[in-house]
Amino acid sequence: MTMRCLVTGGAGFIGSTLVRQLLERGDEVTTLDLLTYAGHRANLDDALGAAGHRFVEGDICDGPLVRGLMGDVDVVFNLAAESHVDRSIESDQPFVRTNVLGTATLLAAALDVGVERFVQVSTDEVYGELPWVDPGSAEAVTAPRFTEDSPLAPRSPYAATKAAADHLALAYHTTHGLDVVVTRGSNTYGLRQYPEKLIPVMVLHALSGEPLPLYGDGLHVRDWIHVDDHVGGIVAVAERGRSGRAYNLGAGNELTNRSLVEAILAELDRPTTLISAVPDRPGHDRRYGVDATRARQELDWTPSVEFTRGLRECVDWYRDNGDWVQTVTA
């Protein structure tokens, strides 16, 4: 069944991938994006003129605007967010405005208009940190991972604002009966990710022969999922998720940051001597890992991109798309 969709933050990394997947399915899509530093029309270069798609430059905190856009949509996908932890440590107010007030504005409009479903796209960082375990050890197989019933215990301003947005969205379901579902994805990688996140930063530094800045001892553990799989999970939740429920989306690719950086250097045939330790950031979570059993069992969703292949394709893309890098960082 064709969905009429509003995708906020649709000119960003995950958002633009979602727009493409929805259009490929034959859905109708309105993309709303303020085009701040991480949102660019270049991310939608092959979708801007597509049938069934329209682009609107605007702010999710603009109540009349979002209410008007929701008048003819079935599903709202909220991906508009400030998302870089380092930036939230330097200045948290933009995160409060977009992630909390913006989500509240969207939810109020969705309730007023009578939107059929509201998909709040969140992050595994809302859970806080797990006890550290070496991903290559036997203990890692049975080590605890976050489930959707784990308490939210965010440890950065970014994660705290996303947790607040989750609570708001689910409260609209409980209090007002709005059909809300929440997705909590693990660390996401792939094409068109703004060059401030770990993988593109390391790839671009390696390509230029610059030192690769690695926080602390480099043993922080993250669970990596390809953006195509992450977005496939978001769509599955929109179609088949149970109202009022959250769904973890992870692929089980837990790696230390150091081992990930070493894999990037190996792909580019660069020496590990390029790795340069830098002072750790405040409150740096040691380990994330999610249990995605609920999504797999209830939604029949399974990640399909093997990590080594996905990383190789990602590295190749950044190497071959210098024009895109220059455009989005200008």
What is the strand and helix layout of this fold?
Blueprint lengths: L3 E5 L4 H13 L2 E6 L19 E5 L5 H7 L5 E4 L6 H6 L2 H21 L3 E7 L33 H20 L3 E6 L1 E3 L8 H11 L3 E4 L5 E6 H14 L5 E4 L4 E3 H11 L7 E4 L14 H7 L7 H14 L1 H8 L1
Parallel strand pairs: 1-2, 1-4, 2-3, 4-5, 5-6, 6-10, 7-9, 8-12
Antiparallel strand pairs: 9-11
Which features characterize this protein?
three-stranded mixed β-sheet; 330 residues; seven-stranded parallel β-sheet; 11 helices
Assess the beta-strand content as a share of residues: 15-25%
Largest sheet geometry: 7 strands, parallel
Rg measurement, Å: 19 Å
Please report the number of helical segments. 11
Poorly predicted sequence stretches spanning 5 or more consecutive residues: none
Spatial gap, N to C terminus: 41 Å
Helix content: 40-55%
Report the average pLDDT across residues.
97
Shape: globular
Strand ordering within the main sheet: 3-2-1-4-5-6-10
Instruction: Output the structural class.
Output: alpha/beta
- The tally of strands reads 12
Secondary-structure element order, N to C: EHEEHEHHEHEEHEEHEEHEHHH
